[in-house]
Design brief:
This protein is of the alpha+beta class. The protein has one helix and four strands, in the order αββββ. The strands form two sheets. The chain has a two-stranded antiparallel ribbon. The protein is rod-shaped and about 120 Å long. It starts with a helix and ends in a 13-residue tail after the last strand.
Length: 106
C-alpha cells in the first residue's frame, strides 16, 4: 500500500508540474506575442520641422519688396500623424524712403 501510494503521489506531482510548466510556457508565449504585436502596431507620428531661418534680405533695394524665411522637414508625418506646416513665410519689406532722389521723377 505504501509503495503504491508513494508512486501515485509522485505521479500526481509530475503531472501537476508538467501542467504548470505547459500553462506557464503558453502564457509567457502569449505575453511575448502580445508585446510584439503592440510593437508592430506603430502609433501615428507627427511631422517635425526645423527652426525658422533668418529673414532674407529684402528683394528690392528701393520700394516695396518681400523678405522670406524658411524651414525644412526633419521628419515626415506617418500613420495619420499631423501633417507638416508651411515651410516658407513671406513679409513685406522696404519703403519709398530707401529710394534715391529722383526715382519718382519720370
Amino acid at each position: 500500500g505504501n509503495l503504491a501510494s508513494l508512486g501515485k503521489r509522485e505521479l500526481y506531482s509530475q503531472i501537476l508540474q508538467s501542467y504548470k510548466t505547459k500553462w506557464a510556457d503558453k502564457h509567457v508565449r502569449k505575453r511575448r506575442f502580445r508585446k510584439r504585436k503592440q510593437a508592430n502596431k506603430k502609433s501615428p507620428r507627427n511631422c517635425q520641422v526645423s527652426e525658422w531661418s533668418r529673414w532674407s534680405p529684402c528683394s528690392v533695394s528701393c520700394g516695396i519688396g518681400e523678405s522670406v524665411r524658411q524651414r525644412s522637414v526633419e521628419r515626415h508625418s506617418w500613420q495619420g500623424g499631423l501633417p507638416c506646416p508651411g515651410l516658407r513665410e513671406y513679409k513685406w519689406c522696404g519703403s519709398a524712403r530707401d529710394c534715391n532722389k529722383g526715382y519718382f521723377d519720370w
